[in-house]
Amino acid sequence: EYLSSQSSPEASTKEPNRSKSYDPKKPHITETPLTRRNWYKHVNWLNVVLIVGIPIIGLISAIWTPLRWQTAIFAVAYYFATGLGITAGYHRLWAHTSYSASTPLKIFWAAVGGGAVEGSIRWWARDHRAHHRYTDTEKDPYSVRKGLLYSHFGWMLMKQNPKRIGRTDISDLNDDWVVVWQHKNYLKVVLFMGLIFPSLVCGLAWGDWLGGFIYGGILRIFFVQQATFCVNSLAHWLGDQPFDDRNSPRDHVITALVTLGEGYHNFHHEFPSDYRNAIEWHQYDPTKWSIWLAKQVGLASDLKQFRSNEIEKGRLQQMQKKLDQKRGKLDWGVPLEQLPVMEWDDYVDQTSNGRALVAVAGVVHDVTDFVADHPGGKAMIRSGIGKDATAMFNGGVYNHSNAAHNLLSTMRVGVIRGGMEVEIWKRAHNENKDTMIVKD
Amino acid sequence: EYLSSQSSPEASTKEPNRSKSYDPKKPHITETPLTRRNWYKHVNWLNVVLIVGIPIIGLISAIWTPLRWQTAIFAVAYYFATGLGITAGYHRLWAHTSYSASTPLKIFWAAVGGGAVEGSIRWWARDHRAHHRYTDTEKDPYSVRKGLLYSHFGWMLMKQNPKRIGRTDISDLNDDWVVVWQHKNYLKVVLFMGLIFPSLVCGLAWGDWLGGFIYGGILRIFFVQQATFCVNSLAHWLGDQPFDDRNSPRDHVITALVTLGEGYHNFHHEFPSDYRNAIEWHQYDPTKWSIWLAKQVGLASDLKQFRSNEIEKGRLQQMQKKLDQKRGKLDWGVPLEQLPVMEWDDYVDQTSNGRALVAVAGVVHDVTDFVADHPGGKAMIRSGIGKDATAMFNGGVYNHSNAAHNLLSTMRVGVIRGGMEVEIWKRAHNENKDTMIVKD
Ligand code: HEM
Ligand code: HEM
Ligand SMILES: [Fe+2]
Ligand SMILES: [Fe+2]
Ligand SMILES: [Fe+2]
Ligand SMILES: [Fe+2]
Question: Which residues pair with residue A18 across a beta bridge?
């Protein structure tokens, strides 16, 4: 094949396989059908414990753990911090390089992002790049085409075939020591930032060690996870598609509210390296606001933004597409080239035999059923029957609206050979009659 | 002129002049300039008294007239009845014949419409037809082009030149005995329905003769007048133009609320013989509702309605128009026919001299400033430099979004003679090299 002879940047990035125990020679479990006897082998039990099991234990423990107001405030604040670690750090900084961050900011995002317990930056960003590059296809790690729940967390609860996920270039991430360090020490980062740090804060500051662990740790992790998972599920399922409806991403304010501003996802898939997701000032995008703030204090720079010219072009084309679809569903009258050709005298003859025909701009219209409904009255429209009503219709008597022109075209029954007036003028001249005087 | 030789239905309708004292030989007062000495001659004093004077007297009298709740309820109810007399009777029935009414309903509309004190049906409908036929022109009796206040009531407070107002066919009104009778007995109708009837009701029923006169009569007249005048002012000034922006009529919910549903005026001017003004169920149009109710009880029939196909065509064309205006304001890149033509070898040469050029679909693009911003990474876009990147760009490596295609076109710098690939394939064949293998 032609393409295969081209060198691709992917070939040069030596991408380690996801799991070290994975042996490409043996068939992967996902390649064997799910049966009653092997189903438990398909389940990713570690993730089930992390995403479902621990939160349930947390919820039950919460019954016996009083919630102190200081702990509640901290848990909510830490929810936002760890959520932004995912949205402003993992997503917009590393997966999409939509801005540059100074080292302190990178370390901060890597730390709080780790506290959200959604995998290392390196793993997350690689999957996410595959998601953008292969959106909605078999190579999309969390394709919504496989179901809303699958895209939400089903893809993590069931084992995945690493060969299936599209490959992407992550050489820039491999060059970033913060990313590499976090990947290598991921388990320590998760334990410390996810559970120990919140317990420490609440314990040392107001003596609520257990509350810090349950509310600031376990339950906060659960909420951050569920919220950010919505970017893969809800954002591909609920809302409008103002920029492109080729794929599943959608814009919706509810998704934005849940996901710290990642809800303008149709925009995001079209303009992935824009540091914004919401482009209007009144839309909710705290991730954008925090990146902007980081820039003001000198921690971030080079915030990428697509020109509004490019954004408006996309919006316009999508509107045009919808308009064209709608146009196709409406009745615009018989196309001119499909109409029979009539002689002028034929036309006049037929009207004297009682048919209510009106000729406008070379086209004959049957207005029989419309005479009684004519908004300008019966007498007016009757005065055009059997005549060349072009001028009357177009301002000579009344300058008809666009709506009237549309309606007229649905009444087409024929075209007149030679464009009418010309012929009758000629006739008048030939027969040397002066019934009609044409100036200039 | 050609048109003048045609017979027009207008020529056959012998339209009496508006004022009997009007002598076409003497110059009309409006033909003399307004000066400090003759200004009072320009004022229509009768209308000033009717529209401004009496309401002021009413307001002052109200200070000493206690408002009883029964009278208040009656005044509001009578406000709606007389308002509907104008909107459902004068306007939609007689001016636009948008439905047929039985004689009892006609008499009712003629009575309550008279109680609104806005002139006879015959006079009102004639002016209104001129307003539709000559909208926004000199012949429009209440053209908004002359100012918002002029269109509201200025046209009544100042004397008008009857020759100025466009002429219209009102033969159908002259054939309607209810219209003719009301016109002949207009003063009696106004006095009875406007003032005597409300006083009688409140006097006989709960002894409030004066309250009935002041609140149910004078002040109610004032509010009905101001509300319905808004159709000529506000409805030509405030709101959107979803169907046509050639003229001034506009749609706005505020106007609709004030005018018993006549606020969807852009629609109304496009589809004047539609018995509806609001076409959506959730829009406020009590005039439409009352016509519909009248039909249910057998008092009205033949409710005219434009096909939704015609309405949607208008809306679509207006949207198309706005889209086209917007399209013209955006940058779509240099048109292909204005680009210089390059040879394939030229293109390759220039890229080896350091210019970042990428050829896609026969067009050369300068991506120098974009390499660092490329959402798919620097390595990816660099791999297209100096090559035919058509296939890579269109799915071979990544199927770029519509937005990427738009962006690409803004980077155009040349077209390649002969459409490139074909040429290089040929070259490979000619030189008998097998560096590239082309299947089927
Ligand atoms: C031949 C097919 C005709 C169609 C389909 C048609 C349609 C319409 C429509 C839809 C209107 C409503 C206002 C508007 O949309 O602009 C209208 C109004 C009018 N038409 Fe026609 N018309 C026809 C022929 C004529 C002719 C031959 C005359 C005159 C010789 C005429 C005179 C008028 C006048 C004076 C009005 C103004 C009524 C008003 O807005 O109050 N029409 N017509
Ligand atoms: C020549 C000018 C190019 C322009 C203007 C351009 C533009 C873009 C844009 C706007 C995106 C964002 C996603 C989208 O809108 O679809 C994108 C993504 C991408 N581009 Fe390009 N591109 C160019 C060339 C290339 C070439 C030559 C390659 C590969 C050989 C390439 C590979 C990619 C990949 C893999 C992505 C996916 C990144 C992701 O969504 O995560 N691009 N490009
Ligand atoms: Fe997505
Ligand atoms: Fe993304
Ligand atoms: Fe109007
Ligand atoms: Fe009207």
Answer: none
Residues in chain B with CB shorter than 8 Å from the CB of A438 are 2
Beta B100-101 vs A357-360: how paired, if at all?
unpaired
Measure the CA–CA gap between B176 and B180, rounded to whole angstroms: 6
Contact present, A173 and A101 (Cβ < 8 Å):
no
Are A164 and A139 spatial neighbours (Cβ–Cβ below 8 Å)? yes
B221-271: pLDDT as tens digits: 999 999 999 999 999 999 999 999 999 999 999 999 999 999 999 999 999
Report d(CA A106, CA A92) in Å as an integer.
12
Q: What would the pLDDT profile of B190-206 be if each residue is shown by its tens digit?
A: 999 999 999 999 999 99
Smallest Cβ–Cβ distance between B396 and the set A3, A310, A313 belongs to: A3
What does chain B come to in residues?
440
Classify B300 as helix, strand or coil. Answer: strand
Query: What distance in Å separates residue A385's CA from the closest CA in chain B?
Result: 12
CB burial of residue B19 (10 Å; 0-12, 13-18, 19+): exposed
Tokens of B11: 């020529």
Ligand 1: which atom is nearest the Cα of residue A382? Answer: 27
| CA–CA distance, A381 with A205 (Å, rounded to integer) | 88
Contacts A391 to B, Cβ<8 Å: 2-3
Q: Which residue of B has its CA nearest to A307?
A: B407
The answer to whether residue B341 scores a pLDDT higher than 60 is: yes
Residues with CB under 6 A from ligand 1: A 358, 360, 365, 367, 370, 374-376, 380-381, 383-384, 389, 392-393, 397-398, 400-401, 403-404, 407-408; B 129, 132-133, 270, 272
Report the nearest-CA residue for atom 11 of ligand 2.
B375
Q: Identify residue A257 by its one-letter amino acid code.
A: L
Q: How far is B37 from chain A (nearest CA, A)?
A: 40
3-state secondary structure of A363: strand
Q: How far apart are the first and last CA of chain B?
A: 69
The number of CA neighbours under 13 Å toward the Cβ of B337 is 0
Amino acid (one-letter) located at A96: H
Instruction: Kindly list the distances between the CA atom of residue B339 and the CA atoms of A265, B347, B352, B354, in Å, as whole numbers in the listed order.
Output: 36, 14, 21, 21
Cα B222 from chain centroid (whole Å): 26
Chain-centre distance for alpha carbon B86 = 20
The answer to whether residues A301 and A99 touch, using CB atoms and an 8 Å cutoff, is yes
Q: Among partner residues A1, A6, A383, which is closest to B7 by beta-carbon distance?
A: A383
Length of chain A: 440
- Reduced to 3 states (helix: H, G, I; strand: E, B; else coil), residue A82 is helix
DSSP letter string, A277-310? S--STTS--HHHHHHHHHHHTTSEE------HHH
Give the strand pairing for A412-416 and A341-342. Answer: parallel
Identity of the residue numbered B278: A
Chain segment B273-324, per-residue pLDDT in tens: 999 999 999 999 999 999 999 999 999 999 999 999 999 999 999 999 999 9
A106-163 tens-digit pLDDT: 999 999 999 999 999 999 999 999 999 999 999 999 999 999 999 999 998 988 888 8
Task: Tell me the residue ranges of DSSP E strands in A135-185.
Answer: none
With an 8 Å Cβ cutoff, are B439 and A314 in contact? no
Please report the ipTM that was assigned to this predicted complex: 0.79
State both tokens at B150.
């002029």
Q: Which residues contact B113 (CB under 8 A, 6 or more apart)?
A: B82, B85, B86, B89, B90, B121
Q: Is A305 at the interface with chain B, CB within 8 A?
A: no
What's the pLDDT tens digit per position in A204-237?
999 999 999 999 999 999 999 999 999 999 999 9
For residue B249 the two structure tokens come to 């009529």
Cα–Cα distance for residue pair B45/B30, rounded to 1 Å:
15
Residue whose C-alpha is closest to residue B436's, from A331, A144, A1: A1
Task: Indicate the DSSP class of residue B101.
Answer: E
Nearest to A203 by CA among A192, A194, A193, A212: A212
